[in-house]
Every structure is written in structure tokens, then in C-alpha cells.
Design a protein that fits this description.
A: about 150 residues; mainly beta; Immunoglobulin-like; 10 strands; B: about 250 residues; five-stranded mixed sheet; about 5% helix; elongated
């Protein structure tokens, strides 16, 4: 009987996060392009064109809980973002407000950006085609609208 | 009769140094300020789009930030915002655009971001992506016609022959750098003019203002007698030539 009770308790505890939508214990650092743009997680590779700029920020996200999890997002403000390899290909310049970063594609090649020793993103800077399509590579949206998060 | 003139002259780009409906500025992509464009009238000397009429005594072709720049050309850029009257800027890739004395020299075709920064270049503030393309050909156009209709839009008659009515009559012409798709390209370039036949060239270098506030750097073709000849303009960087028949009648 004791064994059965223990088994049921373990089962309940293991599925509890899925029932109540509670977040997991460990946050994940994401790279978010613009505001509410695509998000990338540890180990992801992001491509950009040589000579262009990605406007991005880093956030901590607690996975799990569906849409409820958004309230657990937090900005990695003044995050310790640094280029750990390929600094000749990518340069990071912090935005004046300390929230966003300008990721500049200095030369074709691959660089790895590390955040707080927790996450790494590979930035692949591609040579521009001879006849590039019109328009900037990344659409930048509505700076400042996110302050309430 | 054949004469050759080496003139440091700006190929006309389209300009609007002080027009109220100026299109020579571009709001930064973060909306924090404005990138102004300018012409470089001599090394280190720029005429900005916000200069007043009184200041504009020299030829002032200003490129538009929504047009493409010619590879190899030079243009001026200036950034200001409500918070900062002046901010330096840098190119996202220094091998694509070289920044010097507020001027940018275009090294590669494609898109390159200019990033406005704090004085110590330690933080970024705003940016604009500037387009550039190779010069495919150079067209010579009747300046008055081009100013009215817009660059690169010569009509059929003007497309092949420039007609000068009578000996002694002047005709202002401009050279326009064109991309392979026929669109005009901006940026200062040095060209060389050459004429054959009953015409000679004068470069007055004056400022001419029209309803859309274009400022031009035309050369003046003056006929010496009835007849026909040619006018040729050559891009000194690429060697690309534009040629047009001149008919004096």
C-alpha cells in the first residue's frame, strides 16, 4: 500500500507542471530580434548579411506554462554578451538604453556570441549577393513599447 | 575640332538642399533622429541639406537617402536627434563603406548600415541601411528637361540627340550615373567631358533652383556654328562613357 501511494505521489508531482502551467526551475536565455521578433535559443545559428545590423536583445524565459509563461520573461539587461570567437566577423555594440544590442556583420564568417556564460549563439555573416534584394535585413520595430514587461 | 576638359564635377544626383519637401533626409530606423545627406564640394567641405540659400554658393548635388549610391562615389552624412545635435557614425562593415570627415566612400554594391553612436563610439543610438550599386552606364541629358521630369527620364527625342537651335546658343547638360536597371545613382564622382564638332563646353558651376529645389552642376554646351558633333562624358574611375550626338541647326 505504501508503495502504491508513493508511486501515485511521484506521478502526480511529475505531471504537476503540465496541469497547472507552472514554469520549470531553470530559465532559458533567448536572443530576440527586434521586439517580439523571432527568438533563438542556446546553440542556434543566426544568419545575417555582411554590412548589415541585427537589432536584438537577450531575455530570460521560463519554459512551460504556455502563454502564461510570458509573465516570467525578463530582460537580461546589460547582459554580459561577448563575442567569444570570430570577433573579426561580428561586433557587438550596446544600444544607448542598455536593453538592445546592435550586432554588426563586419565581414563574412562565423562568430559565437556568449551570454552570461549560459547560452551561445552562432552568428553566420554571409557575403551579400551582387544584386541584393531591396530593404534592410531586419525590420526594427517600435523601440520602447516593451518597457512594461 | 576636338577639345577635352577635365573637370572635377559632380555628376548630378538629384538634390534639394533646402526644400521644404526635401527627401534628402531619412529617419533613423529606430526613429530617434534623422540622417541628413550632403554633397562634398571639396575634400572635407560639405554642403548640407539644411543649409540656407545664402550658404549655398557652390554646386551642391545632394544624394537622397532613399536612392542608391554609386560604388566608388563619395557622399556626406550627418546625424542629429532631439537629444543630440550631432552624433558620429560608423559603417557596420568598414570594407563596404569608408567613413572619413563625415563623408562616406562607397566600396561595395549592396546594403550597408550606418550606425550613429555616442562620441566615444561605445554605444549605438540609431541606424540606417544605405543601398549602393555599380554604375552601368552614364547618360547625358538636357539639364532643363531632366530637372523638370526627373533624372533618367529623357524622352525619345532627347534620348539620342541633343538639339541646339542656332549658332551661339547655350545648352546645359548633365551627366547621370545609371544602374543596370536604369535608375539614377547618387554620390560624387569625377567625370571628364569631351566634345567633337561645332560645340565647346563651359562649366559655370552655378546653382540653379527650380520648383522642386533641385540644385545642379551642369556644363554648358555652346554651339559655334551650324553642324553636328558629339559630346562625351567619361567616368574617371571606371572609364565608362556616355555619348550623345549634338545637332546645331
Amino acid at each position: 500500500m505504501k508503495t502504491a501511494t508513493r508511486t501515485i505521489l511521484i506521478l502526480l508531482l511529475s505531471i504537476q507542471p503540465f496541469i497547472c502551467g507552472c514554469p520549470s526551475d531553470e530559465p532559458v536565455i533567448v536572443l530576440e530580434l527586434g521586439q517580439r521578433g523571432p527568438r533563438y535559443t542556446d546553440g542556434d545559428q543566426i544568419s545575417m548579411d555582411h554590412g548589415t545590423v541585427l537589432y536584438a536583445r537577450f531575455r530570460e524565459v521560463w519554459p512551460g506554462g504556455g502563454s502564461e509563461s510570458i509573465r516570467f520573461d525578463s530582460l537580461v539587461r546589460e547582459s554580459a554578451a561577448r563575442v567569444i570567437s570570430g570577433s573579426e566577423f561580428v561586433e557587438l555594440l550596446p544600444d544607448i538604453d542598455g536593453e538592445f544590442w546592435f550586432i554588426m556583420g563586419r565581414a563574412p564568417g562565423k562568430a559565437v556570441v556568449e551570454i552570461n556564460n549560459d547560452a551561445e549563439f552562432t552568428i553566420s555573416v554571409l557575403p551579400q549577393p551582387l544584386e541584393p534584394e531591396a530593404g534592410p535585413v531586419v525590420e526594427v520595430i517600435d523601440a520602447g513599447a516593451d518597457a512594461a514587461d | 575640332m576636338r577639345s577635352k576638359y577635365l573637370i572635377s564635377i559632380f555628376i548630378l544626383l538629384a538634390a534639394a538642399c533646402d526644400s521644404e519637401d526635401s527627401v534628402t533626409t531619412a529617419v533613423g530606423e529606430l526613429g530617434r533622429g534623422v540622417f541628413h545627406s550632403a554633397c562634398q564640394v571639396s575634400p572635407g567641405h560639405f554642403i548640407w541639406d539644411f543649409d540656407s540659400d545664402e550658404n549655398v554658393k557652390t554646386p551642391c548635388p545632394v544624394f537622397m537617402l532613399d536612392m542608391r549610391l554609386a560604388v566608388g562615389s563619395i557622399a556626406g552624412v550627418y546625424y542629429e536627434s532631439d537629444a543630440y545635435f550631432y552624433m558620429p557614425f560608423m559603417a557596420a562593415a568598414p570594407d563596404r563603406m569608408v567613413i572619413e570627415d563625415d563623408g562616406i566612400t562607397v566600396m561595395e554594391a549592396g546594403i550597408t548600415a550606418l550606425v550613429a553612436t555616442t562620441e566615444d563610439y561605445g554605444r549605438a543610438y540609431d541606424m540606417v541601411h544605405v543601398h549602393a550599386d555599380f554604375v552601368d552606364r552614364i547618360d547625358i541629358e538636357d539639364a532643363a528637361f531632366a530637372f523638370i521630369e526627373g533624372l533618367g527620364n529623357a524622352d525619345e527625342e532627347n534620348a539620342s540627340t541633343l538639339v541646339i537651335p542656332g549658332s551661339g546658343s547655350p545648352l546645359e547638360v548633365i551627366a547621370v550615373s545609371l544602374a543596370s536597371d536604369g535608375e539614377p545613382l547618387g554620390g560624387r564622382r569625377i567625370v571628364e567631358w569631351e566634345v567633337e564638332g561645332p560645340v565647346m563646353i563651359q562649366w559655370k558651376g552655378h546653382v540653379k533652383k527650380l520648383s522642386n529645389a533641385d540644385i545642379t552642376v551642369p556644363v554648358t554646351i555652346v554651339s559655334t556654328e551650324i553642324g553636328d558633333g558629339w559630346i562625351v562624358v567619361r567616368d574617371t574611375l571606371t572609364g565608362i562613357e556616355g555619348r550623345k550626338r549634338v545637332l546645331v541647326r
